[in-house]
Amino acid sequence: MYPRTTSTLAYDRWLVNGLLICLMFSPAAAQDAADTANESDKAVPATAESNVAAAVYPLAVAISGDDLYTVDLDLPGVWKTEAATGLFAEGTKLLRKPMNRPRCVAMHPSGGILVGDTATREIYWIESANAKPKPLTNGYLGIVMALAVSPDGKTIYAGDAEKRATFKLPLEGGKPELVARVNARGLAFDSEGKLWAVTPDAAAVKRIDVASGEVEDIVTGRPFQYPNGLCWAGDHGYVTDGYGKCIWKFTPDGKTEKWYEGDPLVGPVGIAVSDDSIFVADPKQKEVFEFNRETKEAKARLSPAAK
């Protein structure tokens, strides 16, 4: 450690004051800073691979039939849940190596999953269990927070928190192209091919016409405390609210209501939907909860886990 001098102490005070100002006057900027710091700086080097046999920090989910895929940020890796939970893809705790900080997941139309990894600034295709991750963007993107695949299965869409924008690239990989200046933290397509995005900005939910790049503000006025994930279900969508400990429902005309609040949710983040259920990853509970869409009854899905 260097000695604490008058100049370094003054700099520390200046830095703290600057951060406080950001927190007081720019909630979106504060959330951006927190998310960026969490994704970029939390990774730490290690000398051995993970041997954990239970979820550590489940952050994002995707569903395909009866198969549930869960991104575990701190394991790191991806779990697959059928009748039981097992490790589908193991990452590494080696700094800046593939799958060191997996953050988001989507189903790949040809099989397997797509995973956004913030440590390597990459999107990977993991074709099957224990398969080697295939990079798709050559590290062009920054901090990928959300993924979605177009209804025709030909294009990947990604929300980049560092560039505060949404990009697209071919399913087989390539250089991403800008779609819209939308700082998406969750993405989902509706039946008409419009892309819905949840953001940390004043317009919390936006609808993107991916053909023209036109963006509509749908949900405004900051009804959510800390929006994290988004999914679309027929004629409405759902958003997780980490600080609100709840799931919101919203409609295309911008109306919102709390769909579920409280126990067992403590800090909900990732969300996915099927015909009958809503799946929510809650890292504070180290669990993914499945909610029946009719009764709202919740049940844990990751326990017990086995490697």
What does it look like?
The chain starts with 5 loop residues before the first helix and ends in a 7-residue tail after the last strand. The radius of gyration is 19 Å and the shape is globular. The chain has 307 residues and is mainly beta. The strands form 6 sheets. The protein has a 4-stranded antiparallel sheet with strand order 1-2-3-4, with no helix packed on it. Strands 5-6-7-8 form a 4-stranded antiparallel sheet, with no helix packed on it. The chain has a 4-stranded antiparallel sheet with strand order 9-10-11-12, with no helix packed on it. It has helices spanning 6-25, 27-41; strands spanning 58-64, 67-72, 77-81, 85-90, 102-107, 113-117, 122-126, 134-135, 144-149, 155-160, 165-170, 177-180, 186-189, 195-198, 205-208, 215-219, 227-233, 236-241, 246-250, 256-261, 271-273, 277-282, 287-292, 298-300. Residues 1-16, 19-26 and 39-52 have low confidence and may be disordered. The chain has a single domain, classed as TolB, C-terminal domain (Neuraminidase), CATH 2.120.10.30.
Let me know the CATH homologous superfamily.
TolB, C-terminal domain
Distance between the termini: 41 Å
CATH topology assignment: Neuraminidase
**Low-confidence parts, pLDDT < 50 over ≥5 residues?**
1-16, 19-26, 39-52
Share of helix among residues? 10-25%
Number of discrete helical segments: 2
* Name of the top-level CATH class: Mainly Beta
Q: Class by helix and strand content?
A: mainly beta
Please summarize the sheet with the most strands: 4 strands, antiparallel
Read across the widest sheet, the strand sequence of neighbours is 1-2-3-4
The general outline is globular
